[in-house]
Amino acid sequence: MTAIEIIWLGENLLTGPLPATWGSWKAVQQIAVESNRHVGTVPSTWGALGKSLNGLWLSNNPDLTGCLPRGLERFKGNRVDVCDGTGLTCDIC
């Protein structure tokens, strides 16, 4: 079975909440959903990706709010770039 390692969906005018199920995909290394129209918070399940994630792009989704889920403190990328143009605080909660 092939594992999903990269979710690259930036600049597609996608709407709605971010899928919580992505947090259970253990091989995911990169998630790019920047410049869409996502709403709500980053699902708490995404915290499980903190060990494997090496790229995260959430920027330019102004209706994303709240903080990043516990576990993403292990994310090695720049959290400020992740949250630019969003309503996210980029704090871990």
Describe this structure in words.
The protein has 93 residues and is mainly β. The protein has 1 helix and 7 strands. The chain has one helix spanning 79-83, and strands spanning 6-8, 15-16, 30-32, 37-40, 55-57, 63-68, 87-92. It is globular.
Describe how the helices and strands are arranged.
Elements: E1 6-8, E2 15-16, E3 30-32, E4 37-40, E5 55-57, E6 63-68, H1 79-83, E7 87-92
Short structural summary:
The protein is mostly beta strands and 93 residues long. Helices cover 5% and strands 29% of the residues. It has one helix at residues 79-83; strands at residues 6-8, 15-16, 30-32, 37-40, 55-57, 63-68, 87-92.
Secondary-structure-derived class: mainly beta
Fraction of residues in helix: under 10%
Could you list the spans in which at least 5 consecutive residues all have pLDDT below 50?
none
Q: How would you sum up the major sheet?
A: 4 strands, parallel
Strand order of the largest sheet: 2-4-6-7
The helix-strand sequence is EEEEEEHE
Q: What is the count of helical runs? A: 1
Strand percentage = 25-35%
Average per-residue pLDDT, rounded, comes to: 93
Rg, alpha carbons: 12 Å
Describe the structure using short key phrases:
1 helix, 29% strand, globular, mainly beta, three-stranded parallel sheet, single chain, four-stranded parallel sheet, 93 residues
